[in-house]
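Assess this one:

_____
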Amino acid sequence: MGTPTPPPPVKLIAGLIFSDPEVLAQARETLAQQYGPVEEESHILPFDFTRYYTLEMGPHLQRQYVSFEQLIACEALPPIKLFTNALEATLADPDGRRRVNLDPGYLSLDLLVLATTKNPGHRPYLGQGIYAELTYRFVQGSFRPLEWTYPDYRLQTSVEFFNRVRQRYREQIKALKALRPPGG
């Protein structure tokens, strides 16, 4: 019989889709106030993989990924997604249309998981109306997309960004283990 043990803390990440750089700055500032400083940020890339967000958010959308310095518990993901949903509503235009899309998730040594409110059938339920979207597995020295991974996460630049974040996370976990007392 196995003994239940909690997993190590994980690295909080977020994907942001936006068109107005000022709204991006507001979203990032609020996220940093809530979850601590941004540690890594990707380049800003055009987001033209789908028209799903265009009707609500307008044309010329862009994408950026960020990771946060502080580690979190895996089970913190549903409340974080609820917070980012509320932040999207706060930053919406006067007609209620979103001006930023926030996709929080976490990265471990083995995988990258995003939080979503949508359940197309392959997503495990996490609680509080939130589901897990397994986006990458770490195989043979790199994160690898899965058959349902979103097109923007499939880009080599995206994979490389998250591999860099994983390396930093690995260093953090190693440092945490070194701080633990022997046998503890």
Remarks:
- The helical segments are 21-35, 54-57, 77-90, 151-154, 156-179.
- The CA atoms of residues 14 and 148 lie 18 Å apart.
